[in-house]
Known about the structure:
By secondary structure, the chain is mainly alpha-helical. Helices cover about 70% and strands about 0% of the residues. It has helices at about 5-30, 40-55, 65-85, 105-115, 125, 130-160, 170-195.
Amino acid sequence: MTLNGWLQILVFFVLLVAITPVLGRYMARVYTGERVFLARLLGPFERGIYRVIRADVKREQDWKSYAASLILFSLAGWLLLYLILRTQTIHPFNPQGYHSMPWNVAVNTVTSFLTNTNWQYYGGETTLSYFSQMAGLTVQNFVSAAVGICVAVALIRGITGRSGKGLGNFWQDLVRTVLYVLLPISIVGALVLVSQGVI
Length: 199
C-alpha cells in the first residue's frame, strides 16, 4: 500500500474518532426523545408521517411487537421493491426502455438491498431505469440502514433496561433515524463530495 493509501486511512480514522462524541451525544438525544436542533425544522414532517402511517408513538413496544413491526415493514419493503423491479417496463423515467428484471435476479437484488448487503448481479446503468434506481434501490438503501440502526437502538435499550418490556416504538425510531440521523449525514456528505468536484 502506498503512503497516500495509509494517509487516507489515518485521516479517516482521526475524523471518525473526532466526530464520535458529538454524533454519539446527538444520536442519544434523538433516541431518548430529547429536543435536538433539527426538531424545529423537521418536527412538522415527523408528526405528519406519524399521522399518515397512523403510528401511536406514545405506546412503547415490547420485544415481540417491536420485532413484528420491523418484520412487517421489511416484508412490505421487499414486496414493493420486487414489484418495482418486475414491472419496470411500464414505469416512468425509463428513456432507454429497459425491460423488467427476471424473477430470480429481482429476488436476489431485493433480498440483498433489504439486508443492506447490496450485492449486485446486474449492471445498474445498463439494466435499471431511473425510476427503479431512485424509487426502489435508493429508498431501500435508506430504510434498510435505518432498520439496522433501529435494531441496534432496541438492543441497547433492552440491555440497559434489563428486560424486553420497553424497547421504545419501532415506527418512531424508524422515522427519527431517517429524518434526524441519515438525512442530515447524507446532506453533509453530499456537500463534502460536491466541494471536492464530484458530480
